[in-house]
Automatic annotation (TrEMBL):
Uppermost EC category: transferase
Residues that span the membrane, as ranges: 12-32, 158-181
SMART domains linked: HAMP, HATPase_c, HisKA
Annotated organism of origin: Rugamonas rivuli
Domain HAMP intervals: 183-235
Domain Histidine kinase: 243-457
This protein's name: histidine kinase
Main location: membrane
Catalytic activity: ATP + protein L-histidine = ADP + protein N-phospho-L-histidine
Keywords recorded for this protein, A-Z: Kinase, Membrane, Phosphoprotein, Transferase, Transmembrane, Transmembrane helix, Two-component regulatory system
An example Gene Ontology molecular-function term: phosphorelay sensor kinase activity
Any single Pfam family the record assigns to this protein: HAMP
Length: 459
């Protein structure tokens, strides 16, 4: 019982059942009012018109004329099985009519207005329900005009039975549909719960089965994409852990070896100074490694999205290009900057500037002396903002472009160069944090490393 009260499916079924029941009651009330109500209003109108017509014919004539008119109405053979006429004297004596008994207590007194009443009467020796229009006369008597409602009551009873039967069938269908609805919801939710239980147990590979295009299917696709992302991040964490362990082992071993060598040999100030300097350089490399890992983690976590502001991407490209002109010239490279203004994006200035700087660092390092570099900002296909670094160096093989954005991944040809394989990983994480992506393209020869970002919405 507690489980049912806590079940959202049970609550939906109960709400659906109550809504269905309320709908049935409302439709039945409208139908009843549109059938029986119309009949009742029609009968009232008829007897009022008949009463007015009788009195109009006898208006200003001797009392015997009204009596004769009542008798004529009773003897004309028209609707005689349902019509009611009764003329009563001032002392209550029946003068003419087809009633054996009527509600004498409800007869209007002189000076009062006419009235419509529903009452039981005795007509031709049989009790029957009737609708009566009671009108007082000037001589103290009363005229009763009415209709026998036996047929209407039969119709009313048939309608009631039909409504009750229809309501019962509709209620059964509503309850049955609600139960099927609950079963369908629980079946779809159970698939999500089973997948969640497997994920909780440590297996990140299961996915929610998705069929159709309803809300549960959309939710399943969203959860599956989330799980794909989580699995990718967990795989990245495992890879990073292994890579960190591997990359730390070498510099730590080198530091330990140098210090151990100094300790084993005869210590001298120059030797200790040289060992300390080498150890400090290796430690600085480790610090830079961890700083870059923290930079990737910060970009992927979205912690700095609250610092986003409206930026002109052209200004960022121009500032970074100006900073690297001297460095490119010292390396024997020619750097040109093409940075038009009014290319606005929403982002973090420091992160984007660092990403562009990493692309230029890579281009200067790998393009080789004599190469030409071009830093360009502008619009890209699909209404995106682009900031790209072109070079005419050796480039990256097509089969390797999807791997170089992984942490610590380095091409075989570049392992002799200083670095730790985190530059493009940082750029990719920064682009994703800004709702964009890093795209590597063949420049034939060389490489185009392009950061694509969504344009800022116009104010």
């Amino acid at each position: 019982m507690i489980r049912l009260r806590a079940s959202i499916a049970a609550k939906l079924v109960l709400g659906y059942g109550l809504l269905g029941t309320a709908s049935i009651v409302l439709v039945s009330a409208v139908f009843y009012r549109g059938t029986v109500g119309v009949l009742d209003r029609d009968i009232d109108g008829r007897i009022v018109v008949q009463s007015d017509r009788l009195l109009a014919r006898a208006n200003g004539l001797p009392p015997g004329v009204l009596l004769a008119e009542v008798r004529r109405q009773l003897d004309d053979g028209v609707d005689s099985d349902r019509e009611i006429f009764q003329l009563v004297a001032a002392d209550g004596t029946p003068l003419a009519g087809n009633l054996d008994a009527w509600p004498k207590s409800q007869l209007p007194s002189p000076g009062t207005g006419p009235g419509l009443v529903s009452a039981m009467v005795v007509r031709q020796g049989h009790p029957a329900p009737a609708r009566l229009y009671l009108r007082p006369l000037d001589d103290g008597g009363a005229l009763i005009v009415g209709r026998d409602l036996s047929e209407q009551e039969a119709v009313r009873e048939v309608i009631w039975h039909a409504l009750l039967a229809g309501a019962a069938v509709s209620l059964l269908l509503t309850v049955g549909g609600a139960l099927l609805f609950r079963r369908a919801i629980e079946r779809r939710l159970s698939a999500i719960r089973r997948t969640a239980a497997q994920i909780e147990a440590g297996d990140l590979s299961p996915r929610i089965p998705v069929t159709g295009h309803d809300e549960f299917a959309l939710l399943g696709r969203d959860i599956n994409r989330m799980l794909d992302r989580i699995e990718l991040l967990m795989e990245g964490i495992r890879h990073v852990s292994n890579a960190i362990a591997h990359d730390l082992r070498t510099p730590l071993g080198r530091i330990r070896g140098r210090l151990d060598e100094v300790v084993r040999r005869e210590a001298s100030v120059p030797r200790l100074t040289a060992a300390a300097r080498d150890a400090i350089e290796d430690i600085d490399d480790l610090i830079r490694l961890f700083e870059r890992l923290l930079q990737i983690a910060e970009a992927e976590s979205g912690m700095r999205t609250r610092l986003f502001e409206r930026l002109d991407l052209g200004h960022i490209a121009s500032d970074i290009g100006e900073m690297y002109e001297a460095s490119a010239e010292d390396s024997g490279l020619q750097l040109t900057v093409d940075a038009p203004e009014h290319l606005y994006v929403d982002g973090d200035r420091n992160l984007l500037a660092s990403a562009v700087a990493s692309l230029l660092d890579n281009a200067i390092k790998y393009a080789g002396p004599g190469a030409s570099l071009r830093l360009r900002a502008g619009l890209y296909h699909g209404g995106l903002a682009s900031i790209a670094v072109h070079d005419n160096g050796p480039g990256i093989p097509e089969q390797e472009r999807g791997k170089v954005t992984q942490r610590f991944y380095r091409l075989d040809d570049s392992r002799h160069l200083p670095g730790n394989g985190l530059g493009l990983a940082i750029v990719s994480a920064t682009a994703l944090a800004h709702g964009g992506e890093l795209v590597l393209e063949d420049a034939a020869p060389g490489l185009v490393a392009r950061i694509l970002l969504p344009l800022a919405p116009q104010a």
